[in-house]
Amino acid sequence: MNKVVEVYLVVVAIFIVSFSNAVNDFSVKIEDFSIETDEFLNG
Q1: Quick one: DSSP state of residue 30?
Q2: Of 3, 23, 28, 30, which residue is 20 to 30 A from 38 by alpha carbon distance?
């Protein structure tokens, strides 16, 4: 039982880390896109 719980916690931790990395990448892309849009509109 303990082994199963340990594996589950590791999987959840990896999922959380990869999810937060994806969110960070996504927000950076949105910032880049809004900067490009501002430059285009104010061009």
Answers
A1: H
A2: 23
* 40-43 contacts, C-beta under 8 A, 24 or more apart: none
First to last CA, the chain: 62
SS3 1: coil
Phi-psi region of 23 (alpha: psi -120 to 50; beta: other; left: phi over 0): alpha
The predicted-structure confidence for 23-34, as pLDDT tens digits, reads as follows 999 999 999 999
Angstrom distance (rounded) from CA 5 to CA 9: 6
Q: How far apart are CA 1 and CA 11, in angstroms?
A: 16
